[in-house]
Amino acid sequence: MYINMMVDYYSQQLEAINYEALWIGNNVMEKIGGLSEKTAFIQPIPEIHSVAELIAHMTSLQIEVANKIRERHSIQQKYQPNYWRSNEELKTIGWKQLKEEYETSIVHLSLYIWDKPDSFLKETYTEDNHKTDYPFGYALEGVIHHILYHLGQIGITIKLLIAKELHV
Question: For the chain, N or C: smaller number of CB within 10 Å?
Fold first, then answer.
């Protein structure tokens, strides 16, 4: 009997959304790969996040879920996420580093789940801002949905940058 079929599925989805051909279009790395340092930090209009802000935000959620897995399985917590950082703060980090941190967060999350049995997905954690326990399967689905949601926002942001001739 295959004991981690669903865990493998989540891991494959994380891989696909970030690196493989998708039915919906470009994966994350294709979408952000050609952006220049300058373009990554441009907000096409003040109410829209820059691509750099979106990538940093996505990284934060992935780190948070990885932390919850580490805590539950007694692995020392490494990072503390900061959910929405300003463009000014992110510019001090740099676009290249932000992309590397994003990729690292995906790799770490995949590594933390790859050897777990499917029963792990039913284990629970408590959200800090809720008093409710959630299964890890719910969190992993949430990460996948979160990436896809923001992948769409990245696409719209890039289209607006092109339409307004703000890309360089």
Answer: N
